[in-house]
Design a protein that fits this description.
alpha+beta, eight-stranded antiparallel β-sheet, 4 helices
């Protein structure tokens, strides 16, 4: 990419295995059995993941359920996505586990996300140059103050749940609603 042009955000999957069930144009089958997409692999070259997406294939607004789990990896691996998309650079930290589920119906996505991480450090930068000016440095200090640098299980051994709640605009895409649903839970999990 040219030096002065924004780089696209991207998320890579490898060692991917996908199983698709009940993919059909037969309306009798589609009405009785949802389409199921079951995927396993490695996220961003590091973390094992497993996701199952169940979609009711019929006219009208999308109805689906998604659930999954992501294993351990350096959080900085997400810089390929969050740096160009949000101007957020993750400089340290490890995610141990993320588990989520959400349902989509009636233009809303509702569910839960549970994440365990430690030693998170971040800074706000210009998404094109990766540099900080005084304003970005000041905002980075504030971002560190309002975000958790760790999220561990409580004394009861349970990881606190963060609510997933996303109102889906009619123009959103399938993968857009998937990401924004997860992002709503992640944002809540990260706040102090």
């Amino acid at each position: 990419w040219p030096e002065d042009a924004p780089h696209p955000a991207h998320v890579d999957f490898d060692k991917l295995r996908v199983r698709v069930l009940h993919a059909t144009n037969d309306t009798v089958v589609a009405d009785s059995l949802p389409l199921v997409i079951d995927g396993r692999g490695r996220l961003l070259g590091a973390a094992p993941f497993h996701t199952t997406i169940t979609v009711q294939v019929r006219p009208g607004p999308i109805r689906m359920r998604a659930e999954g789990e992501v294993g351990s990896m350096p959080i900085s691996r997400f810089n390929t996505f969050v740096l160009p998309a949000n101007g957020l650079e993750i400089t340290d930290g490890t995610v141990e586990n993320v588990a989520f589920w959400f349902n989509v119906a009636g233009g809303k996505s509702v569910g839960e996300l549970r994440a365990v991480w430690h030693d998170l450090d971040l800074r706000l930068v210009d998404p094109v140059t990766g540099k900080q000016n005084f304003g970005k440095k000041l905002k980075s200090v504030v971002a560190r103050m309002i975000s958790k640098n760790h999220n561990q299980p409580g004394k009861d051994g349970k990881v606190p749940a963060a609510e997933i709640q996303y109102d889906i605009p009619p123009t959103d895409t399938f993968w857009g609603l998937f990401w924004r649903s997860l992002k709503s839970g992640l944002g809540k999990a990260m706040k102090n």
